[in-house]
Amino acid sequence: MPPKPIVRETTISITATRHQEFAADKADLQVTIKGSSVVTGNAALKKAKEVNEMVTALLAVGVKEDELSLRGIQVHSSSGVLTRTSSASYTLRIRCSRLELLGEILGAISAQKNASLDHLTWRYPDLTTLQKEWLDSCIAEAKERAAHIAGALGVKLLALHSFSEVWKDPEEVAVRTQAAQPGHLHAVAELTRQIDLGFNLSHSKVVEQRVDLTYVVDRRELVVEHLHQ
Question: Superfamily assignment of 26-123 in CATH?
Answer without folding.
Answer: Protein of unknown function (DUF541), domain 2 (3.30.70.2970)
